[in-house]
From TrEMBL:
Source organism of the structure: Mucilaginibacter hurinus
EC number of this enzyme: 6.3.5.5
Residues covered by region (CPSase): 1-180
Keywords: Amino-acid biosynthesis, Arginine biosynthesis, ATP-binding, Glutamine amidotransferase, Ligase, Nucleotide-binding, Pyrimidine biosynthesis
Catalytic activity reported: hydrogencarbonate + L-glutamine + 2 ATP + H2O = carbamoyl phosphate + L-glutamate + 2 ADP + phosphate + 2 H(+); L-glutamine + H2O = L-glutamate + NH4(+)
Pathway: Amino-acid biosynthesis; L-arginine biosynthesis; carbamoyl phosphate from bicarbonate: step 1/1; Pyrimidine metabolism; UMP biosynthesis via de novo pathway; (S)-dihydroorotate from bicarbonate: step 1/3
Catalytic residues (positions): C258, H344, E346
Domain Carbamoyl-phosphate synthase small subunit N-terminal: 7-137
A molecular function GO annotation: ATP binding
Sequence similarity: Belongs to the CarA family.
Functional description taken from the UniProt entry: Small subunit of the glutamine-dependent carbamoyl phosphate synthetase (CPSase). CPSase catalyzes the formation of carbamoyl phosphate from the ammonia moiety of glutamine, carbonate, and phosphate donated by ATP, constituting the first step of 2 biosynthetic pathways, one leading to arginine and/or urea and the other to pyrimidine nucleotides. The small subunit (glutamine amidotransferase) binds and cleaves glutamine to supply the large subunit with the substrate ammonia.
Pfam families listed in its UniProt record: CPSase_sm_chain, GATase
Record's protein name: Carbamoyl phosphate synthase small chain
Length: 366
């Protein structure tokens, strides 16, 4: 598998912008919404984050693949990104602990990518023009043919994707004798979230996306509920919004991350919107307005809650605000044991400034 010669490849954006580069990964064609991540490390965790399902990832760090692939450093059972765009695609790797190269990894999982393009120029373009669909091909080099294929790709706006990445069967994580039991609604949960629960003496049971509150309650009788991260448009998930409403009505402790944050907002009549450009990276400053301190956060989302609606709501209060654009990064429901954040306190990759949120959830269950 490692015998590999870089062939030409083309990246075409929905606005007609074309980039020519070299093939990376499997020879083929892929489509998705193009976005960029500003993280300097953690490429494998990014590849396997279910929240990136259906998206072509542009990495702003120059070297990708340089420390190889480790079977332990995954956030789900497979690569979730639709494709990769990078500057330097490093098949040779330097880390002794690695299990293989990025090229072997991508070929095994049928991932198409493109390298050797000016990613700085591309990121500036996406930043100015907004997130849009794109196509990568190392088998079709005719731009007009690629335009025809790209025109058939649906917008991320209105897409329900969580049911495609969620587990199909329930499973448990942690020590069965642990003092706390948490039901996890899997909309695309990352493994490091489950590891953080296990570290805090939580026995978690993970349920498929469309499991009802009644089913989880009767099956597991948990001390609390966790609503996970995941891909797609939260407004296209009435089944999950209804589950969150039922948990709230039962007055159970609840914690939501990322997509779970958006669903908690929708359950309180606060609408969501598709962002011009999402927040994706490891260095986003967020202010905890309750404790009056700042934390550097890991983020990955292309949808957000409508800021004006949150501020006008009498059902929730704001707990966290993004210091770059003042978007709402955290809420808690008045009179309930329920709160959520838009970012990723489990990081992986990213800073550990926000791990205290897991402890706050444990406190609600005590």
């Amino acid at each position: 598998m490692t015998n590999y010669t870089k062939l030409p490849a083309v990246l075409l954006l929905a606005d007609g912008t074309v980039f020519h580069g070299k093939a990376a990964g499997k020879i083929g064609t892929t489509t998705g919404e193009i976005c960029f991540n500003t993280g300097m490390t953690g490429y494998q965790e990014i590849f396997t984050d279910p929240s990136y399902y259906g998206q072509i990832m542009v990495t702003t760090n120059s070297h990708i693949g340089n420390y190889g692939i480790s079977n332990e450093e995954v956030e789900s059972g497979r690569i979730q990104i639709a494709g990769l765009v990078c500057k330097d695609y490093n098949i040779a790797y330097s880390r002794k602990q690695a299990d293989g190269s990025i090229q072997d990894y991508f070929q095994q999982q049928n991932i198409v990518g493109i390298s050797d393009i000016d990613t700085r120029q591309l990121v500036r373009h996406i930043r100015d023009k907004g997130a849009m669909n794109a196509i990568i091909s190392s088998e079709i080099l005719d731009v007009e043919e690629l335009k025809a294929k790209l025109s058939e790709v649906p917008s991320m706006d209105g897409l329900e994707l969580s049911s495609q990445v969620s587990t199909t069967e329930t499973y448990t994580f942690g020590d069965e004798k642990a003092p706390y039991r948490v039901a996890v609604l899997d909309l695309g949960v990352k493994k490091n979230i489950l590891r953080n629960f296990d570290d805090r003496e939580v026995y978690a049971k993970v349920y498929p996306a469309k499991t009802t509150f009644e089913e989880m309650e009767q099956d597991f009788k948990p001390n609390g509920y966790f609503i996970s991260n995941g891909p797609g448009d939260p407004a296209a998930m009435p089944y999950a919004v209804n589950t969150v409403k039922e948990i709230l009505n039962a007055d159970k402790p609840m914690f939501g991350i990322c997509l779970g944050h958006q669903l908690l907002a929708l359950a309180n009549d606060i609408p969501t919107k598709k962002m011009f450009n999402g927040h994706r990276g490891l260095n986003h400053p967020v202010k905890n307005v309750i404790k009056d301190h700042c934390e550097v956060t890991s983020q990955n989302h292309g949808f957000g809650v409508v800021q004006e609606a949150v501020r006008a709501s009498d059902k929730v209060e704001i707990t966290h605000v993004n210091l770059n654009d003042q978007s709402i990064e955290g809420i808690r429901v008045k009179g309930k044991k329920a709160f959520s954040v838009q970012y990723h306190p489990e990081s992986s990759p990213g800073p550990h400034d926000s791990r205290y949120l897991f402890d706050d959830f444990i406190d609600l269950m005590k």
